[in-house]
Amino acid sequence: MGLSIIILAAGQGMRMRSELPKVLQPLAGRPMLAHVLACTRALDAGDVCVVYGHGGEAVPAAFNDAGVRWALQSEQLGTGHAVQQAMPEMQQDGMVLILFGDVPLLLPGTLQRLIGVTDAGEMAILTVEVEDPTGYGRIVRDDGDVVKIVEEEDATSEERAIREINTGVMLCSAPTLKRWLDRLGNDNAQGEYYLTDVIAMAVADDVRVHGVKADNWVEVMGINDKKQLAEAERALQARLVDDLMSQGVGFADPSRVDIRGNLTCGKDVFIDINAVFEGDVSLGDGVRVESNNLIRDSQLGSRTLVHSNCHIEGATTGDNCEIGPFARLRPGTTLADDVKVGNFVEIKKSEVADGSKINHLSYIGDSKIGKGVNIGAGTITCNYDGTNKYITTIGDGAFIGSGVNLVAPVDIGRGATIGAGSTITKAAPKDKLTLERSEQVTVEGWKGPAKNN
Ligand code: UD1
Ligand code: CA
């Protein structure tokens, strides 16, 4: 039978105290709702419909190409009312699975378990046992099956002592659910249309309600405030790092690394503490990332070594490169094999061929650097005239002395040597020494300034 999914994401999330709608709050670098959508993709669902409301069009706009339907709940009158808004968007038969946009760590396996136990004509909810059930809907069972969910505000003191709670995940036949939703009232402590009230209707209609327990609290935790968001972030990071360790990646401390996107690693990769990976990052075999690095949308070739304190974004390296400490690779940086980029070097939109070295205090922008080039300390490509950017090219085997300004557009020939301190504005021929310096003078009779009174 067909499966449809409804994700409730219209709530305000007032406790986040943020301008950003709750389901757009980031978790591992992606909006919370993206994690729920990723989980649904692993299930074979016909329709997926997200109920949005608070935060308005910002929520659907953030998921333009997610291939899901959207239903607007303009007033947040409760979870039952929210599901009702989505029903016209859904297949009219088959089963419907209801998820919450603020429960982002759910795993598809758990949902498959829920689907597996539920026969046609039955329903199921996902529950969990917690130490402190305060604030959650309590599960009331009779003879093993669920007979009622009582919200905190409406519970008797006996019911409040129940430690099994409702996670919000529900599975039900679509036509039956539609019938029950039409009968929901809001005569309760919060004046809301509670989705959970359909349980009592199921019992009255002799429909069996399975209560399937989740294995752990983390997977079903609902996120309402920044503390819970941080807790979920750590839990998700632990899950991501665990996964990488089982693939053979080494971490100095699995709790001190952050992966905000997709990190793929070859064999024998080692990652030291406080490395942050954002977007799509791939690390080749034997890559080592020392402490305190930010690496975003970059590919590092095999055995590349990133020393401490580098900032690497939109860069590609070949094999056996050595970067940092304190280097910055900006978008469009391509290093071939065996390239060395040392401390306080910034490279932008430049290609550096095999075996070249830029070891200290340089800015290289819009450049094409050949093989085996040595760039001396403090050399700068002057790529910008205040209006336009220009290219610097340096031929294979060139040697650029320290403190050189290369005023682009400019060409340095193969094997050329540029004398230290030169400001080069014209092409420098190959295999020759070119320099540009005023003659050194010593001023006779010079006196230092006298101190003013
Ligand atoms: C709900 C459940 C409670 C469960 C808890 C788990 C009900 C009545 N209660 O309570 O049993 O233990 O979740 O976290 O269902 N939403 C809408 N529109 C609305 C109201 C809510 O889309 O009008 C969405 C929210 O964005 C959120 C979800 O539904 O994703 C849950 O809403 P929330 O107000 O957090 O429900 P709880 O009071 O926590
Ligand atoms: Ca909640």
Task: Please provide a written account of the structure.
With 453 residues, the chain is α/β, with parallel strands linked by helices. It folds into two domains: 3-220, Spore Coat Polysaccharide Biosynthesis Protein SpsA, Chain A, CATH 3.90.550; 249-434, 3 Solenoid (UDP N-Acetylglucosamine Acyltransferase, domain 1), CATH 2.160.10. The protein is built from nine helices and 39 strands. The chain has an eleven-stranded parallel beta sheet with strand order 12-14-16-19-22-25-28-31-34-37-39, with helices on one face. Strands 13, 15, 17, 18, 20, 23, 26 and 29 form an eight-stranded parallel beta sheet that branches. A seven-stranded mixed beta sheet has the order 5-4-1-6-10-7-11, with helices on both faces. A hairpin with a 2-residue loop joins strand 2 (26-27) and strand 3 (30-31). It starts with a strand and ends in a 19-residue tail after the last strand. The model has no long low-confidence stretch (mean pLDDT 96).
Keywords, please?
11-stranded parallel β-sheet; 9 helices; 453 residues; 32% strand; UDP N-Acetylglucosamine Acyltransferase, domain 1; alpha/beta; single chain; binds uridine-diphosphate-N-acetylglucosamine; Spore Coat Polysaccharide Biosynthesis Protein SpsA, Chain A; binds calcium ion
